[in-house]
Design brief:
Bound molecules: nicotinamide-adenine-dinucleotide
Helix content: 25-40%
Strand order of the largest sheet: 3-2-1-4-5-6-11
Number of helices: 10
Oligomer: single chain
Number of strands: 13
CATH superfamily of the largest domain: NAD(P)-binding Rossmann-like Domain
CATH topology of the largest domain: Rossmann fold
Number of domains: 2
Strand content: 15-25%
Length: 316
């Protein structure tokens, strides 16, 4: 049988590199498209081919249009909320124009499945009715959130117009080896690199803000499961899956769990609350359990231990 072929955009980054490995295990030959703006060649798994280019480029479009790919799994993005607020046009250029370039290429190249890394942390409106399920009201409060939700609508539209199968995976807060401590979503990586350097951990406000932390290898398995999901797209929520644990962990709890996982003690300090920070967040994964046969398998402290071992080994 001819080998199945997948493109993973952002495959030199944190999540995309684990996704590339998971798709290889599914029997795909993986081609990574990445401009290396935050990713690194060393993250690309052995056996995968790296093409260094921008998702907005003609090169990316020609590659996908002419490559005979079965799956495009899209992880390259501008993913810093603060950058999106400071420069919403840059965010839209990378996240929306980049997506459209890939979708047009997928249509030209008769790609069968398009998987998209969305975000359960930014597409839903803030409410106390947690965890959010997929049909919860959407109300992004940043340009980044709008570009993620807008992307889901573009996917649905391409599915309805051209028959391409689409899946949006709405990730909770992803953590694990290879996460950069720079940028918005990297609190675990930030805590880990500070612990390694013997520096205190800073918690903003009272530290009772909650997030739903999901281990990157579980997220990668969800992408593998998504390659096998083939529902008709009748709404964005019908082809969307929350990928998280459904458990809220406060920043203080996370800091303590990270200290436990590392076996090192540093102090936890408080700093003034940051304006505009979401107070609580978690996503209901029942739909993914039922329809993707997926559930998270890594407990927080175990995942943090594996993450800290990686940070202690490589991060500066
Ligand atoms: N980390 C999280 O907790 C989280 C949560 C929800 C959603 N996501 C989404 O998951 C995806 C991957 O995030 P990550 O945490 O692995 O980030 P990352 O920065 O490690 O990975 C992004 C990769 O995309 C590449 N890239 C960026 N812009 C590009 C462009 N214009 N053309 C080509 N390549 C480009 C970068 O070099 C990098 O390798 C993003 O779409 C992000 O929005 C992440």
């Amino acid at each position: 049988m001819p080998e199945k072929k997948a493109v993973v955009t952002g495959g030199a980054g944190f999540i995309g590199s684990h996704v590339s490995e998971a798709l290889q295990r599914e029997g795909y030959h993986v081609t990574v498209i990445d401009n290396l703006s935050s990713g690194s060649e060393s993250n690309v798994p052995h056996g995968a081919e790296l093409v260094v280019c921008d998702v907005r480029s003609e090169q990316a479009r020609e590659l996908i249009a002419g490559g005979g790919f079965d799956v495009v799994d899209h992880h390259a993005a501008q993913m810093d909320v603060r950058v999106s607020v400071a420069d919403p046009m840059l965010d839209a250029d990378i996240n929306l124009m980049g997506l459209l370039n890939l979708l047009e290429a997928a249509r030209e190249g008769d790609v069968k499945k398009f998987i998209f890394a969305s975000s359960g942390g930014v597409v839903y409106g803030e409410s106390d009715d947690l965890p959010h399920n997929e049909t919860a009201p959407k109300l992004p409060v940043s340009p980044y959130g709008v570009s993620k939700l807008g992307s889901e609508y573009y996917l649905a539209m391409y599915s309805m117009l051209y028959g391409i199968k689409v899946v949006s995976l709405r990730y909770a807060n992803v953590y694990g080896p290879r996460q950069s401590p720079h940028g918005e979503a990297g609190v675990v990586a930030i805590f880990g690199s500070r612990i390694k350097k013997g520096e205190n951990l800073t918690v903003f406000g009272d530290g009772e803000q909650t997030r739903d932390y999901v281990f990157v290898k579980d997220v990668a398995r969800a992408n593998a499961a998504a390659t096998r999901f083939d529902a008709e797209c009748t709404s964005i929520d019908k082809v969307a899956f929350n990928i998280g644990t459904g458990t809220e962990t406060s920043v203080v709890q996370l800091a303590n769990a990270m200290l436990e996982a590392s076996g090192i003690t540093v102090a936890i300090e408080n700093a003034p609350a940051r304006a505009g920070e979401l107070l609580r967040s978690s996503v209901d994964n029942a739909r993914a359990k039922k329809l993707l046969d997926w559930e998270p398998s890594v407990e927080l402290v175990g995942g943090l231990r594996e993450t800290y071992e990686w940070i202690a080994g490589v991060a500066g």
